[in-house]
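Lab meeting, item 3. Inverse folding demo.
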């Protein structure tokens, strides 16, 4: 059973930075991609960033382009999200997600595996 464990959330003032981490456990073979999604109260889930495990190609939501960076470690079983220049509208629960299926590697898809989430709160 694949398990994803996020860490690194917290509270920060606008303009600050946070780095989220996501460790994976129970993988049976290489993932197609991993990603970060977020959901604020009363809002739809939003795809933030994804990374293809083979090759490291990244895609970002327009709302975070240039401020957030997704990366992975050498073993490609841990993914990070560096968040800079944070804004109050970035406040949300952030979820790490993973999929074995390459056709799901986009910001709108349901990846299938998801962590419990880590809260990010940005104050003005």
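The presenter then showed the designed sequence:
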């Amino acid at each position: 059973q694949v398990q994803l464990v996020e860490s690194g959330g917290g509270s920060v003032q606008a303009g600050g930075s946070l780095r989220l981490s996501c460790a994976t456990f129970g993988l049976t073979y290489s993932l197609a991609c991993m990603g970060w999604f977020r959901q604020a109260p009363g809002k739809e889930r939003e795809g933030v960033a994804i990374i293809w495990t083979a090759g490291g190609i990244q895609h970002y939501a327009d709302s975070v382009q240039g401020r957030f960076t997704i990366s992975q470690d050498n073993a490609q079983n841990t993914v990070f999200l560096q968040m800079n220049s944070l804004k109050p509208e970035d406040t949300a629960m952030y979820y790490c997600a993973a999929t074995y299926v390459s056709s799901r590697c986009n910001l709108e898809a349901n990846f299938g595996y998801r962590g419990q989430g880590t809260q990010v709160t940005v104050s003005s």
